[in-house]
């Protein structure tokens, strides 16, 4: 049972802060956003089959009517065999929510509020009356509440970066595997654990990340209250809308320097770097090849463009294709994940190498997160520039593509830049400055 009402003067933050203590989520690109709270259905799956199982669970959900497209929100761990626990408690191999309340909006301030509940067939009318009353109630509260100005408090911070020496050893092992012909590329990641003296609400972190990182794909998923994943990904893994597929291959990175001139110069040197172009091309070629069995009319530009973000610049190639009506966005996610932007080439060798060289659980880091509907539309991004935590303890992740010509220091610095969006967002919420580890 679904009830939809229009709302004015809506911000996602009033809604999400008002929903503290429930499961919450927020997904945005530029000015368009979706926020949700509560759980009408909790879908979970494990194993190599998890993409297909989630698709089957979505198809088995009760559907209110032809004109309502029920959506679920959530994501997948990086690896098939991931198990929830530790930093990743609440985040199994695959988890999606059909929320109780969903709110969508854009820059206009006009939005839409949708309440959903499973109705007993004998009580449809009563449930609808209840939902209507509840939605009017919520609409009034959302329209009445003045914009909240959260005053940042001074929050102390201590950071633990995984060691520089271990990083150097892992890079050496990957370079040896490249020389030996075992892999051509592997994306090595490291972690940064931030311990705060106070609590930062993941919603505050998401709001700041969204404001400060235009051009990225914002995600927040708090599947059980108190533990959330939040981040700002530079690329789209798979977007399907009315039979059209779209993704961006993003790989090859450089900083932004200290001035506009320096930013331009660094961008140009990235565009002409043979090492970065080769690293980038591996991602495009792999994505195009893997789309072959699941899409038609696949098109990708021959030359990458520059993707300028607030703290980093990347090489980017847009990929488009057509998708048959019986295909679901999750079929495309299953085919593409993990791309060489987050894993390596060949895929299985890179997965095994990273398993040996990374001394932590990737969990959902670099896994596909997003939303989809029963008709097959949806939007997924890899969980990058991200942190998982309970408000006080946050674990940040950042990785870099290692290819022939990579150096331990260069890739250490690059991962240092990739921690910046979350670190600066924490600081903007009143957290003391944090440096991402010894050089
Ligand atoms: C792996 C990450 O980012 C990926 C790796 C990139 C690279 O190696 O140049 C660039 C963009 C992302 O696809 C990360 O942010 O952790």
UniProtKB/TrEMBL annotation:
Residues 165-418 form the Chorismate-utilising enzyme C-terminal domain. Keywords: Isomerase. Transmembrane segments: none annotated. GO terms for molecular function: isochorismate synthase activity. Gene3D superfamilies: Anthranilate synthase. Its EC number is 5.4.4.2. The keyword Isomerase applies. It catalyses: chorismate = isochorismate. InterPro entries: ADC_synthase, Chorismate_C, IsoChor_synthase. Belongs to the isochorismate synthase family. This is isochorismate synthase. It comes from Gaopeijia maritima.
